[in-house]
Amino acid sequence: RDTATPTYPTGSVHSEKQADLAGTSLHATHGTYASGDNLDVIAKIENIGNSISESYRNTFYASTDSKFNPEDYGDLYWDLDALAVGENDYYLFPWVLSQSMPDGQYYIGAIVTVNDDSDGSNNSKYDESPITIYNPPPNPSTPQNLSATDGVYSDKVQVTWSDVADETSYQVFRCSTSSTDSCGAAIATPGANTTSHDDFGA
Question: Coil, strand, or helix at residue 182?
Answer without folding.
Answer: helix
